[in-house]
Amino acid sequence: MSVSAAEVGTTLPPLTVRVTRETLVRYAGASGDFNPIHWSDHAARALGLPGVIAHGMLTMGLAARAVTAWAGPGARLVSYGVRFTRPVPVPDDGVGAELLVAGAVTAVDAGTVTVTLDVTRDGEKVLGAARVVLAAGAA
């Protein structure tokens, strides 16, 4: 779909993303974020977390994929913001955690299209106030 043809109420195809411990290791290497809460159950639990959790920025980036996949390769992302509402525990079970990303166009004006995302794990919202603004003239 062309972003410039988007209308308020247009829904994006849902995206399901699996996050495993391997995903966390790869992201840590790429980002340089080696905080032990992202790889050590002991360190995470010592801070009151349920175990290892996904990096917030990783969760945010994975959620943005729903918008970029819908908007296509010519899309231009103008802004993106979220509130981190819940950690995403990633069990060391070979299965990991599953994120479900849904979205809808919530505003269209002469220059931009706003998409609001709903990002959940096991039915609980993990990102709040997740909004992506795209340039309306994007292909």
TrEMBL record:
Pfam families according to UniProt: MaoC_dehydratas (PF01575)
Residue ranges constituting the MaoC-like domain according to the UniProt record: 13-119
Coiled coil: none
Annotated TM spans: none
CDD domains: SAV4209_like
UniProt family annotation: Belongs to the enoyl-CoA hydratase/isomerase family.
Name of the featured protein: MaoC family dehydratase
Source organism (scientific name): Microlunatus spumicola
